[in-house]
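Reviewers of the previous submission asked for a worked example of the structure-prediction workflow described in the proposal, so we include one complete record here. The input consisted solely of the amino acid sequence. No template or homolog information was supplied to the procedure at any stage.
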Amino acid sequence: MKLKIIFLSAIAFILQGCVLTKVASVPMRLGGAVVSIVPGVGNSAHDAIDSAADSVDDIPI
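From that input alone, the workflow returned the following structure tokens.
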């Protein structure tokens, strides 16, 4: 029982903060990298997605 509490506390400590925002921002950044291949509008779309991902990273979770 005591080991379960320690294990759950360790998981809660690891999963707080930036890990939760990375779960949302990493797929956004990957999508932006794929979109950047498109000629003409790719770079501007990538920049917009990247700035949105930066905003998600700044959320204090």
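The two ends are 29 Å apart (CA to CA). We consider this example representative of the routine output the project will generate in years two and three.
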